[in-house]
Amino acid sequence: MKETAFKDPAKKKFQFPHIYVLLLMIIIACTIATWVLPAGEFDRIKNEAGRTIVVAGTYHPIESTPVGPFKMIQAIYGGMLDASNIIFFIMIAYASIGLIISTGAFNGLVSGLLRVLKGKSRAVIIPVFITILGIASSTIGVFEEAFPFVPIFVGIAIAMGYDAIVGLAIVALGIGIGYAGAVMNPFTVGMAQSIAELPPMSGASFRIFCHIAMVVVASAYIMRYAIRIQEDPTKSLLYGSDMASHVKADENLENYRFGIREILVLATLAIGIIVVVYGTKTYGWYLQELCAMFLIMGIVSAAIMGWSPSETAEKMAKSFADMAMAAMMVGLARAILVVLRSGSIIDTVVYGLAFPLSYMPSWVAAECMLVVQTLLNFLVPSGSGQAVISMPIMAPLSDLLGIPRQIAVLCFQFGDGLSNIMWPTAFAPVLCALAGIKLDRWWKWLVPLFILLILTQMALIAIGMFIGLA
Asked: Where, if anywhere, are coiled coils annotated (predicted)?
């Protein structure tokens, strides 16, 4: 008699939740926290520069305002409104850059690069562009402004035999390290030094050293990954997936046309970027002015290519549709902050994180400041916002512990910069959506590098403590 073979049901493989589900889970967790954690706040005053800052040592409990289920759902709409400037910037800027990409000008440019750079030498574009983007972030605070260029670098990376992660990493690490090692970023280091009562640009030479060190570590990591998948595509974390579905690489890219129209389109983009940099630096331009400049660049490029107004509009409409998901992510992430504000527990968390540092030796406390600032950026994913909340506490605390205030500022910028491309409450989901990558794939690739860079930052803080950075 034959024995009947029974097969065990196939075990379900764990699937990472959809990013909307993940963000909603965080919103629910924060809502629960408003019922568990005591509400509290610091007193706030306006300093000489007119900025509202917290007063160290003034934390006190206040009446609890826990967030109910219905108010939690309302926070999603509130988050959309609160982040509307970022949402519309992403959609308009991406649609405008989408027009430029559609011209094929970048394909022509990459075609020339592919003819010049052969084999492993192509990887030199990685440190070059990370450095360029890093300088822009370090000096004038470019961050969201670089988002429209994510699909461009993704397309270039795919065409060069890499994958979408490499393209995203160039932009994300460029701006993330730029913020972390910023020399004169007015939105982060400038504000933090002002609050800590340090001279502007003080400690600049050491921060340049820090920036270079992080660029070297990140570039080596990305180049190693890029070369490995160039030799064996199966090594890619995206192998077998529909990577960058809205960014396609041409199979015959090395022979792509690069005529006068394409050159004029790139010239338009270059002039536009120069105007953006000048306007941001000289006139304090922000998202509204930048949106206008991106629109002008896109429309002029469409005119150079001879497209009709309707054809141009159709291309822009498609880009709007592609970015709808990313725009919703921004609003959902901001809803987390809305819940925390409504429950009045942000200051409680800051106080809880900073209080244990007062009992630690200075060398240990300095390193722990980095950890605190990195964790704090999960709740306050804004460089300037984190500065006005944390620096009035960390600056006097560093005095009590014998830690130079410059180190406190360094810990702030380290913690703020890199975590922006890591935390789901910051810009990680948006960057992944722009690159056409699932968030869990990005995290799987980024976490080892993130840990390596955190260790690098800890070593740099130790050096700063040793030399008495001032």
From this structure: none
* Amino acid letter, 190: G
At 382-427, the pLDDT tens digits run: 776 677 677 777 777 787 677 888 998 999 999 988 888 998 888 8
Position 222 pLDDT exceeds 90 = yes
Q: Which residue has the tokens 């959809």?
A: 18
Report pLDDT for 460.
Answer: 96
- Angstrom distance (rounded) from CA 372 to CA 365: 10
How far from the centroid of its chain's Cα atoms is residue 324's Cα? 19
R_g (Cα) of the chain, nearest Å: 24
What's the mean per-residue pLDDT of the chain?
A: 82
CB-based contacts of 176, cutoff 8 Å, min separation 6: 137, 417, 418, 420, 421
Cα distance between residue 381 and residue 429, in whole Å: 13
Note whether 464 and 404 are within 8 A (CB): yes
Contact 381, 333 (CB under 8 A): yes
3-state secondary structure (DSSP) of residue 45:
strand
158, 318, 326: which is closest to 244 by C-alpha? 158
Q: Look at residue 46 and give its three-state secondary structure.
A: strand
> Measuring CA to CA, which residue among 146, 67, 307, 117 is closest to residue 226?
117
The residue that leads in pLDDT, 245 or 212, is: 212
- Give the contacts of 438 (CB within 8 A, at least 6 positions apart): 16, 241, 432
Cα separation, 183 vs 202, in Å, equals: 9
For residue 286, CA distances in Å to 34, 76, 133, 275, 462 come to: 34, 25, 18, 13, 36
Model pTM greater than 0.70?
yes
> Is there a contact between 245 and 239 (Cβ–Cβ < 8 Å)?
no
Residue located via tokens 């527990």: 345
Q: Which two tokens stand for residue 310?
A: 């309707």
Tokens of 131: 């450095």
Helical axes 19-36 vs 69-82, angle rounded to 10°: 120
**Contact status, residue 402 vs residue 362, Cβ threshold 8 Å:** yes
| Residue in this structure with the two tokens 């260029």, named with its chain if needed | 149
Residue 250 clears pLDDT 50, i.e. is over it: no
pLDDT category at 447 given cuts 50, 70, 90 is very high
